[in-house]
Amino acid sequence: MSPNRRSSPLLPSLLTVGCLCLLCTRLPSSFLTAAPTGHGRSGRTAMRGFKEDFEAWRSSLTPEEREMVQTQAAGEFNKKFRKSDEFKKDLPEEKVKSFSKILGKFFDAEAADYKKEVEAKVPNYNRLLEKAGDKVLDFAMSSRIVEIDRDADRRYTFATR
C-alpha cells in the first residue's frame, strides 16, 4: 500500500445508504412496501422522522457535494473509479457528523420497535395447562363390544383406490 492512500470506511457506507434512500424515493411506493404487519405506529413515525431529517440534510448539501455523492454512488462497484482520486474525496466533517446523528436516531427507533415486537411475540407457555388444567378427565374403562365388519372395510378400501 502506498502511504498516500487513505482509507475511509465511512464514505462507502454513507454512499450506500444514500443510494438506498434515493432508490426508495424514486421507485413506486408499492414496489418496496408490503402489507402492514400491525407492529404499531411508532415504526412509521420513526420512518417519517428519518425521511424528514434526511431530506433536510440532503438539502443542506451544496450542488457540488450532491454531484460528488451521486458520482461516488454510481461508481461504487467500478474498480477503476474506486482507484481514482474522485472516489477518495470526502464530505465535510460536520455534514458527516450530522448524517451520523440522523442514522443513529433512526437505528435507535428501529431497535426500540424491534424490542417491542419481540416482547409482543413471546408466547404464553403455560396456556395449555391453564386451559386444560381445570377439566377432569375420565379414563375409566367400560365394557362394550363393538363389531367390526372386516369385509365391508376391504370393499371400501378396494372401492376408494
Explain this structure to me?
It is a single chain. By secondary structure, this protein is mostly helical. Helix content is 63%, strand content 0%.
Structural class: mainly alpha
- Average pLDDT, rounded to a whole number, is 79
Q: Which blocks of ≥5 consecutive residues have pLDDT under 50?
A: 30-41
Strand content of the residues, in percent? under 5%
Given the C-alpha coordinates, what overall shape results? elongated
Quaternary organization: single chain
> What is the overall number of helices?
8
| Terminal Cα span | 75 Å
Radius of gyration: 31 Å
Counting DSSP E segments of at least 2 residues, the number of strands comes to 0
Helix content: 55-70%
Task: Tell me about the largest β-sheet.
Answer: none
- The secondary-structure element order is HHHHHHHH
